Amino acid sequence: MDDVLGDTKENDIILDNGLFDSRHNFLSFCQRNRFQFDSLRRAKYSSMMILYLVKNPTLLTVGTTCRVCSKNNVSQRYWKCENCPEFTVCSECYNERGANCHAHTLNEAYSPAQSPSGNQELQQNSAMLQQLLDVIEHASLCHSIKTQPCTYPHCRQIKKLFAHASRCEIRFSGGCQFCKKVWQGLTLHSKNCRDSACRIPRCMDLKKQVEWIATQSESRLRAAVLQSKDSR
Fold first, then answer.
1. What is the pLDDT of residues 101-141, one digit of tens each?
2. DSSP H helical segments within the chain, as ranges?
């Protein structure tokens, strides 16, 4: 054991991704992208593609699905309907069928992964997202008073939103836009939080809710599999 290094700390960057939050999320992701592990060849391909997509999160967020052939055509150009936001057609189907693909006019579009400004926009959005998470965490633990106001950027605004959410009678479920902003921020924080004893409001409750939903989804999936086996 003399050849074992005293310090085995990993220097690789930790990449957080919601795909691995639960078994159901990962299974749905593999099914949607047709990743299989029933043979060594398929397992190698699926593993490399998953690592590639995790390393390049832009491709995960863009993934548009063709409404004609149901093919997931991420990183490709596609055709989109202005009247039906969810209707997209891949370039292969459009070249084959033309305007007959849809009743409305289709316009050519590119995914952010191929757009010249896509990487720059992604970096800007990531920076703004991180700033939002930082100010939410700070404002939740800040104990400044009127005589000694906090100088942290946007801390006061976030505190006002928290105070409103605690007194509001309409709530997010009733359509309050201020409560909606608070709820979206807290939900975003809970998805990225790895603290098992987080003190930010509702963080632990949101984590438990996600775990409960994942458990229910796995139970329904297991029941469906058993039912299909019994029917055979």
1. 777 788 887 655 455 455 565 566 667 777 888 888 898 88
2. 23-32, 40-55, 57-62, 91-97, 118-141, 155-167, 177-192, 203-231
- Name the residue among 67, 65, 61 with its Cα closest to residue 104: 67
DSSP per-residue string spanning 13-55: PP---GGGSSHHHHHHHHHHTT---SSHHHHHHHHHHHHHHHH
pTM of the model: 0.48
Let me know if 217 is exposed, middle or buried by CB neighbors in 10 A (0-12, 13-18, 19+). Answer: middle
CB neighbourhood size of 229 (10 A): 8
Q: Which of 88, 226, 74, 202 is nearest to 136 (CA)?
A: 202
Provide the 8-state DSSP code for 6. S
